[in-house]
Amino acid sequence: MSSVRVLVGTRKGAFVLTSDAKRERWDVSGPHFAGWEIYHVKGSPVDPNRLYASQSSGWFGQLIQRSNDGGKTWEPVGNKFEYDGVPGTHQWYDGTPHPWEFKRVWHVEPSLSDPDTVYAGIEDAAMFRSTDGGQNWQELSGLRGHGSGPHWQPGAGGMCLHTIILDPSDPNRMFIAISAAGAFRTDDGGKTWKPINRGLKSQYIPDPNAEVGHCVHHVAMHGSRPGVLFMQKHWDVMRSDDAGDSWHEVSGNLPTDFGFVIDVHAHEPETIYVVPIKSDSEHYPPDGKLRVYRSRTGGNEWEELSKGLPQSNCYVNVLRDAMAVDKLDSCGVYFGTTGGQVYASADAGDNWAPIVRDLPAVLSVEVQTLP
Amino acid sequence: MIRVVLPAHLRTLARVTGEVKLEVEGQVTQRSVLNALETCYPMLRGTIRDHVTQQRRPFVRFFACEEDLSHESPDAPLPDPVANGVEPLLVVGAIAGG
Fold it and tell me: Fewer CB atoms < 10 Å away: N or C end of chain B?
């Protein structure tokens, strides 16, 4: 019988939540790496027992942990992220040049074909790859070396490369996103990159055609339609039908189009999910009501999903990597909050229930569907 | 033998309990002790000092013999009681934050 494994990264450790396909009763394991910030945990699509976790601390820096048994045991692997060549400078908040400095790994993305190959998105923004199970890391420096690099600026959360999407139909094509530089695409396996931000409108940028400088919060794609991308930008929910070459807004009737997460239904590539957040200065749901919004039309027309979610006095946030879907016949949707709840819906968002209520602030949620 | 006391998180990471005891070749300095420590426990690389610059991480401090040695040169000899194994070198996660 199928089962699901939910991998949760929090401010104070990682948790592994498991259930059978009914998704009614859950076993909670953790905290793993207690006391450390776990920005992200993700499993290999070709070997579900192979997991990678980004573990960091303000005191002791960055570690990468690897599991070969689905999260029961872990071993630290390589944690040396050295920029390729002279790091150079990007733009600081005040507009002055600032040296590139490694701070942490925000996102780990295992290869679609090789469990020993894994990508890491780091702050200050750069992309690294390991081909030996995380022991050694090399920068894909063509990204940071893109001519716009010296003009990238950090967002409020730092200048982080937080999204990595691998195209299942073309191993040379990848998409990434950086706060607050924007989205980029490579068509040659990471050697060269191009900004893909045409159509994004950001009020704070005077040039409406600015190549970079957009605060992209997250991007999602359905594997069956790799040319269609959905983006939650700082403000605005956006869609691209040409692999990012151009974008148009699909915020439609959302109560607010600010937010962090966005994801796509496992079996319906036009069904997408967001969690609207009131504003960039008030990082909590409007009216104290936690609501997921679902569009079955690829955007513009949204319906509120609130059954089982708190509808009063709720002031949590849902961070950019904290939503995921499973691949069971009735698609499960999951998200975690800064209040430490992880909510699950086993019916594509119609009904919700908390798996856990009192974890540390949730930074990331990933789901594995196991045979 | 040189004695080193690690903070709790690094003891967990290195899978040790209590003090760590190390053989150190040549002069006993912060650098030579950390080199020996990282050779025995490679998972600690990058957690006490930066991989590339070899500089002490900002929120890690070194104490011994009731003195804060954090700002001493990494190549300065450590106090004799540390070099003789009478006193441990304490690696401390700074009390910081809020």
Answer: C
User: Is B10 near chain A, with CB under 8 Å?
Assistant: yes
Contact status of A58 with chain B (Cβ, < 8 Å): yes
Q: ipTM of the predicted structure?
A: 0.95
Pairwise CA distance, residues B64 & B60, whole Å = 14
**Could you read off the pLDDT tens digit of each residue along chain A, which spans 371 residues?**
799 999 999 999 999 999 999 999 999 999 999 999 999 999 999 999 999 999 999 999 999 999 999 999 999 999 999 999 988 899 998 889 999 999 999 999 999 999 999 999 999 999 999 999 999 999 999 999 888 999 999 988 899 999 999 999 999 999 999 998 999 999 999 999 999 999 999 877 878 788 999 999 999 999 999 999 999 999 999 999 999 999 999 999 999 999 999 999 999 999 999 999 999 999 999 999 999 999 999 999 999 999 999 999 999 999 999 999 999 999 999 999 999 999 999 999 999 999 999 999 999 999 999 99
Would you tell me how many other CB atoms lie within 10 Å of the CB of residue A281? Answer: 6
Smallest Cβ distance to B10: which of A58, A60, A80?
A60
List the strands of the sheet with A333-336, edge to edge: A323-325, A333-336, A342-345, A353-356
* B40 interface with A at CB cutoff 8 Å: no
Chain A residues within 8 A of B62 when measuring between CB atoms: none
pTM of the full structure: 0.97
The runs of H, that is alpha helices, within chain A are 141-144
Q: Which residues of A touch B57 (CB under 8 A)?
A: 59-61
Neighboring chain B residues of A79 at a CB cutoff of 8 Å: 45-47, 51
What are the structural domains of chain A?
3-370 (2.130.10.10)
CA distances from B95 to A1, A69, A351 (A): 49, 36, 45
